[in-house]
Amino acid sequence: MSDFWGLYNYWIAIFLMMVGFYNVIARGNLIKKLIGLNIFQTSVFLLYISMGKVEGGSAPIVGAGISSFSNPLPHVLILTAIVVGVATTSVGLALVVRIKEAYGTIEEDELIAQESVTQ
Amino acid sequence: MNSHLPIVPIILPMVAAPLCMLLRRRTFVWGLATAVTWVVFAACAQLLLQVSTSGPIIYTMGGWNAPIGIEYRIDLVNAYILLLVSAIAALVMIYAPQSAARELPPDRHNLFCAAFLLCLTGLLGITITGDAFNVYVFLEISSLASYAIISVGRDPRSLKAAYNYLIMGTIGATFILIAIGLMYMMTGTLNMADLAQRLKEVHDTRTIHVAFAFLSVGLTLKLALFPMHVWLPNAYTYAPSLVTAFVAATSTKVSIYVFLRFVFTIFGADYAFTTIHLNAILVPLALVGIFIASTVAIYQTDLKRLLAYSSIAQIGYIMLGIGMGTVTGLTAGIAHIFNHALIKCALFMVVGCIVLRLDSSRLEDMAGIGRRMPATSFAFVLGGLALIGVPFTVGFISKWYLLLGALERDWWPVAALVLLSSLLAAVYIWRFVEVAYFRPAPDDATPISAPPLSMQIPLWLLLAATLFFGVQTDLTAGIAQRAALWLLAGGP
Amino acid sequence: MSNFVDIALLAFLALVALAVTRTLNLFATVALTGIYSLLMASIFTTLDAVDVAFTEAAVGAGISTVLFLATMALTTSHEKPHHHHNWAAIMATLITGSALVYGTLDMPHFGDPQAPIHQHVAPHYIEISPNEIGVPNMVTSVLATYRGYDTLGETAVIFTACMAVLLLLQRDRRGGNRNVMAVPDADQRRGGQSMQHAMILRVFSKFFIPLIFLFGLYVQFHGDYGPGGGFQAGVIFASGFILYTLVFGLEKARQVIPPRTLQALVAFGLLLYAGTGIATLVMGGQFLEYKALAHEATHGEHLGILFIELGVGITVAAVMTTIFFTFAGRGRS
Amino acid sequence: MDILIYYTSWLLLLCGAFFCAVGGLGILRLPDFYSRQHAAGITDTLGAALLLIGLILQAGLSLVGIKLVMILLFLLFTSPVATHTIAQAALQSGLKPKLAEKERDG
Lengths: 119, 492, 333, 106
Description:
Chain B is mainly alpha-helical. Chain B has helices at residues 8-22, 26-54, 76-103, 109-128, 132-151, 157-187, 192-199, 206-223, 232-238, 241-275, 278-298, 303-324, 327-358, 369-372, 374-388, 394-408, 412-438, 453-471, 474-488; strands spanning 57-60, 71-74. Chain B has a domain at 277-492. The relative contact order of chain B is 0.09. Chain D has one domain (2-105). In chain D, helix 1 (2-29) runs antiparallel to helix 2 (33-59) and helix 2 runs antiparallel to helix 3 (63-92). At the A-C interface, helix 1, helix 2 and helix 3 of A face helix 1, helix 2, helix 3, helix 4 and helix 6 of C.
C-alpha cells in the first residue's frame, strides 16, 4: 500500500503517456497524431516534475522563512523540453498543411491509397 | 585561443545560420556556408590530432565544473566522429550549389543553408557533449533541421516522408528523454562521466533496466536498425540528392555514436553484455536486417531507394560488430561507421549527378548511361565495389574485421552469413551495372555533358579516400581499434 | 489536502486524455488538448514548478492551440471515423506501459527528500546558487548560468523550427501576397464578414494589447525574482501580435511589423545569445562565463543573464509571430 | 473582524464553486450553442469572480491581493468579449438559435 501512495503519481503519468502514445501510433489522421504526440510529451514532463517534488518543499525561489525547496533542475530541463515540443509541433503542422495542399487529404489510409493508384 | 577550440565546431555554424538566413544573394549564402563548414572541418581535424596525441579534452561551459554545469568531453571516439561529420559536410557543401540549383525551390536557398548549418550544429553538438540531457537538446536541433531539409524535395512524397520521419523521430527522442529521466532519477546527475560512476551502485534496479531498454529502443529508432527502419527509405529517396548524401552519411552514424557512448561509457560493457545480454538481441536483429534489407534492395526500381535499403543493411553490419562486444567486433563497427559514410556519401553524390542530367533517379531511365556519362557511372561502380567489400577498398577492411570478430567468438554461422550477404550486395550493385552498361540507350537519347566540376571533385575525393584508406589502414582501422579499446575499458 | 487536490487534478487529466482519444471532431480535440495543458499547468503549480507551469500554460494552452486551429482552418476539422481497433497499436502501448510500470517499482517514492536527485548536484543549486549568482529564482540561475548552454541549444531549436516552417510554408516571392487570407478563421472562408468588423473586439483589443505587452515586459525583467523569463515573455509578446493579427487582419499586422524586420529579430535574438558567449570569450572567460563581463562576479552574472534572457525573449517572440504569420499567409489556393 | 472576513471569504468561495458547477452542468444539459454560451458565461463571470473575491479577502492588502484584483479586472473584461465574439462568429457562420427555429416553425 505504501508503494501505491509513493508511486501513484508516476503511474498516472505513465497512463497518460500511453494514451498519447496510442494516439500517435494508432490514428490515421495526421493532425490527431500530432495531438497524441503533444499529450505523450506533456506527460513525460509530468514524470520529470513529479520526481523533482520534495514533500513539504516549496517553489525554488528564495523567500523569507522558506527552508525546504523542490529540486529546480527538473524544472529547467522541462522548460527546455516544452520549447522543443512546441517547435516539433509547429514543424509537424507545417508539413500537414503542405500534405493537404499536395494530396487533398490528411488521412493516412487515403494517402496510401493514392500512392498505390499512381504507381 | 587554442584552449577554446572545442566550441568552434558548434558555435560557428550556429552563428552562421542566422546570418545565412538574412543574406539574400545566393552566392553569398553558399559562400558563407561553405567557408564555415571548412573552418569547422579544420577545427575538428585539429581536435582529433590533439586528442590522439595528448588524451581527452575537457571544456567546461561557463566555467562551471561538471556535474554542476555542462562540459564537453572529447575523447578518441567522438573526435573521430566529429571529423567524419565535418568532413562530409565540407565536401557536400562544395557539391551542393549546383545540385541545389536543380533540386531546390529557387527562392529558399538562404533558408535551406540555415537549416543545413543547424543540422550540422546539432550533429556535432550531440557528438561533442559530455552531458546526457544536452544530447537530447542537440538531437532535436539536428532532427528538426533534417525534417526541414528532407521535406524540400521536388516530389511531394518528400513531405510524407518528412512527416513520418518526424513522428518516428520524435517518438524515438521522447523514449530517450524518458530513459534520461529515469537515469537521472536514480543517480541525481546528468553528466556522462558522473553517471557512469553512480550507475554502478544502482545497476541491479529495475528502473535502470527499463531506462536501458527505452534508451536502446529510442536510439535504434533514430539509427534505423531493422525493424525500426521504416522511416528511412522514403526519407532518403525523396529528399534532394545533396541532403540524402549528407544525411545518409552522418545522421544515423551520429545516432550509432550515441548508442556506443551510452552502452559502453555510461552503462559499461559489463552491464550491457552480461546483465542485459545485449548481444542476444542485437546480433539476430542485425543479421535479419542485413538479409531482408539487401534482398529488398535488389527489387527496387529507383536507384536512390535501392541505396537507402542498402544503408539499412550496412547499419546492420555496424550493429553486428558492436553486438559482438569484443575489441575486434567493435573495431569493425567503428571502422565501418567511417567507411560506410564515405561510400554512401559518394554513391548518393553520383545519383545526384545523374539526377542533375537525367532529371530522374529511376533505374529504367538510366539505360545505357555507362556510355552517356562514363565517368559518373564508373564512379558508381567503384563505390559499389567498396560497398560489396572488394579488397583494396575500405569496405574490405570493415568486413575483414567483422569476419575476424565472428571467428574470434567461434560464431561460424555469423561469419558465413556475412560472406553470403556480400553476395547480395553484389547483386544489387549489378542491377545498376546491367542497366548502365548492357542496355542500349534509348534512340532519342541526346548526348549529355559531364556534371560540373564542383560536383565531381568532392565525389572523386571521396572515392579516392575509399581507395586510400583501403590500403592505408592506420587512420581508419588504427583509430577505430584504439577507440574500441578505450570504449571497452569504460573510458577514463 | 494537497494529496486530494493532486489526485483530483490527475483524474481530470486522465479523463481529458481519454476524451481526446474518443473524440473525432478535431476542433473539440484541440480544445480538449488546451484543457489538458491547463490542467497540467495546475499540477505543475502544486508540484512547485511555477516556471514550468507558466510556460506550459502559455505554450500548451496558448500557442499550440492557436497553431492547431490555424492548421485546421487550412486543412480539415474532422477526423475520419475508423471502426476496427488497432490491435497492434494496443499491444505496443500495453507493452511499453507495463515496462514503464515495472521500472517504477524500484523508484524512490514520490516526494521522498532522501531520493538521489535531492542529494547530488541539486543541493549546490539550492544552497549555493543564490549567493553565487545573486538571483533568488533558482530556476532562472540554473537555466541561464549552470545550464546556459542547454538554453542556447533551446534557442537554436526554436530558430530551427522557424527555418523549417518558412521553408515549408513561405509564399513564393513571385507569387506576392495574392492569396493572403485576412484571418485563418472558419467564417472568413465562407465569405462572411471577417473579425475586422467586430467592433467590440476591436475597441477591446486596442485597449488591451498594450497591456499584454506591458505584462510581457514585466515577465521578461522580473524573471530573476519570480516565475518568468525570456521564454515566457516571448510567448506573451507573440500572443499580443497574434491577437492583433486576428482582429485587424494579416495585412495590417504586416504593416505594423514587416516580415523582414521580424526575420531580422529572429536572427538577432540567437545572435545576441551566442554573441554574449563570444563576448565572455573575448573578455577572457570560458564560453558563457558571465563573470568575465564585469569586475565583480555577481554583477557580471546579472549582466549575462539580462542579455541572454533578452536574446531568448526576442527570438521566441519573433519566431512565434513569424510562424503564425506564415500559417495565416498560406491561405487557400 | 478576522473571523468575519474568514467566513465571508469561504462563503464566496463556495458560491463561486457552486456557480462553476452550475455552469458546467448547463454546458452539458442546455439544448443549443447559444444557451450553452450563457451557461459558460456564468462560469466565466459569476463563478470566477466570486472565487477571486473570496481569495482577495483571504489575501488581504498585499501584493498577492493586488495581483488578484488585477486578474479579476482582466477576467471581467476578457470573458464577455470572448463570449460575444464566439457568439458572433457562430451567428455569422450560419448557426441559428434552436428556440428561434421553433418559434418560426410553430
